[in-house]
Amino acid sequence: SPVWPGLIEAYRSRLPVSATTPVVTLHEGATPLVPAVELSRRTGCEVFLKVEGANPTGSFKDRGMTMAITKALEEGSRAVICASTGNTSASAAAYAARAGMVCAVLVPQGKIALGKLAQALVHGAKLLQVEGNFDDCLALASKLAIDYPVSLVNSVNQYRIEGQKTASFEVVDVLGDAPDVHCLPVGNAGNITAYWQGYREYESDGPATRRPRMFGFQAAGAAPIVTGQVVENPSTIATAIRIGNPASWTKALAARDESGGRIDAVTDREILAAYRLLARSEAVFVEPASAASVAGLLKVAAAGELEPGQRVVCTVTGNGLKDPEWAISGAPAPVTVPVDAAAAAAQLGL
Ligand code: F0G
Fold first, then answer.
1. Ligand 1: distance of its center to the CA of 240 in Å?
2. Which atom of ligand 1 is nearest to the CA of 190?
3. pTM higher than 0.80 for the full model?
4. Residue whose CA is closest, atom 6 of ligand 1?
5. How many other β-carbons are positioned within 10 Å of the β-carbon of residue 343?
6. How far apart are CA 315 and CA 60, in angstroms?
7. Distance 188 CA to ligand 1 centre (A)
8. Is 104 helix (H, G, I), strand (E, B) or coil?
9. ipTM, 2 decimals?
10. What value, to the nearest 5°, has the Cα angle with vertex 188 and ends 184 and 192?
11. How far apart are CA 196 and CA 202, in angstroms?
12. What residues does the Tryptophan synthase beta chain-like PALP domain cover (predicted)?
């Protein structure tokens, strides 16, 4: 069809929907797989960026949310709830609005990017700022979903994983086979779980002949999977992955171990360096958490632990416009000039 129908229609046979399922879609998916020239040069590999910020609400969460809201509607739910570091709430609010459902959102007070807060509000979500971190919000949302008539749409909901696995399908559909390595930022660990499921399915009964090694990267101040211990007070500038007790922890370990991959930590400094490199050299503006995948790739390559010549895909999970703070604070303040060509030219060094 001339119009991309959204990922449920595109991958219908591989998703838990029937002919009568009321599909709720914003035509998400089919995101660009962009060759990364500078990253390829630096690593000696063939690197691509899966630009998930190109989804309707600006993050990969839309893949999971089209499925989760569709199934909630099919099952007769009138209201959904989620805990979020921002992107899940933005996506849930939008898809709930599309479905005519009520959306409740629990976010850690003062710890989500302004653009994401704006999205939840503009789409009409009922938003509560919780005096706690993401892990507290998720515990609270889970309890409310048990005790009250509201469906939980965090990634502990298997339909979220089903939707998100389609990103792996798209990578294989474009490249012709799975890459050697796939790099992802890791927070609650739903997405690495979903990608691994997608790659496994496509290899077992689809067009792929192999599976990639899965490389996950957490922020150093919020790296429970790396240290093996719950982080009581997670801290990182990458607020999207400021999570101390990931819900899909054991599934992330399975993805790592079954694929011969790794889960490592990257510092905030490394994240910001990758964030700036992506914007300046690849012209891809992502939010800080998204840059963790690229920071991790550069770190592994610099340590000599990446064989040159491999095909590598880094998912950049969210759009930079959601969290412009770090773009502005890292740049010189704009100069003001009068309406005068000579003055403008002098300031521009022309
Ligand atoms: N990147 C971004 C931009 C995210 O928003 C998230 C998670 C991740 C990476 C990590 O993905 O949790 O599946 O390991 N954001 C969630 C949220 C927690 O509430 O928006 P994950």
1. 5
2. 13
3. yes
4. 240
5. 12
6. 9
7. 7
8. strand
9. 0.99
10. 35
11. 10
12. 24-318
